[in-house]
């Protein structure tokens, strides 16, 4: 897995992309990973997958022994298929999906934890993000850095590190997400790759520090948190991270402190379980 970085740019016809996303709007989008979000759903639709089967969107539910190929949905998107064929080595492409998020944030998490039992030669090892539709209220985060991706950019993305995504608007954000088997970074692309080595400074969002009064106000949510609203409160904490700098591990440390102060053992156990599941071990 290579470091998260801007790798290059793919010229795409905006009109053709828009037309095909209108076609895709009639597809069935899976919400298999919506447990990862607070707010609206995180939806995805496979256009390339094991056996050419669109499946249910949950990568562990595919037969990884079958050769990946275009799905029925992908067949209906000839321009996006052309983009894939022209710019990437499809021999090593495992999955390609359209991913849509709006008015929602994800819990900070690590991916690939659930793929330990998948054979190494068919396991997702490298991820690429290509924003198709986005706006200035859509963000990613990694290592307490908040940054934006722009349409048409190609990003190598280290999904094994703790990361998250946010759409702080009702405008849908759509990315093309590609997962490759381990071919090495240089074996993935068929276009001029000019990796930045990291997130470029002009993509990083400048945030003021969380003030002590703001931090205490968040911790004061301990007085109202319960199993009916813990996800809403988690969303407030996560959204704060995208607008203010609370330091390393701000989201999980704040949620754990809120749960501890609440005195609600059920909530404390729930937050602890989510932290374990999203960051440490997903086998259970």
Features:
single chain, 284 residues, alpha+beta, Jelly Rolls, Proline Oxidase, Chain: A,  Domain 2, 2 domains, seven-stranded antiparallel β-sheet, five-stranded antiparallel β-sheet, 14 strands, 27% helix
How are the SSEs ordered, and which strands pair?
Layout: E1 5-9, H1 14-24, E2 37-39, E3 42-50, E4 68-70, H2 72-75, H3 78-87, E5 93-101, E6 104-106, E7 126-133, E8 138-142, E9 145-147, E10 153-157, E11 163-167, E12 173-180, E13 208-209, H4 212-219, H5 230-243, E14 244-245, H6 250-262, H7 265-280
Helix pairs in contact: 5-6, 6-7
Architecture overview:
- The protein is α+β, with helices and mostly antiparallel strands.
- The chain has two domains: 199 residues, B-lactam Antibiotic, Isopenicillin N Synthase, Chain (Jelly Rolls); 73 residues, Proline Oxidase, Chain: A,  Domain 2, CATH 1.10.1720.
- Helix content is 27%, strand content 25%.
- It contains seven helices and 14 strands.
- It has a seven-stranded antiparallel beta sheet with strand order 1-10-7-12-5-3-4. A five-stranded antiparallel beta sheet has the order 2-6-11-8-9, covered by helices on one side. The chain has a two-stranded parallel ribbon with strand order 13-14.
- Strand 8 and strand 9 form a beta hairpin.
- The mean pLDDT is 92.
- Pfam families: Asp_Arg_Hydrox, Pro_3_hydrox_C.
- This is Aspartyl/asparaginyl beta-hydroxylase domain-containing protein.
- It comes from Actinomadura adrarensis.
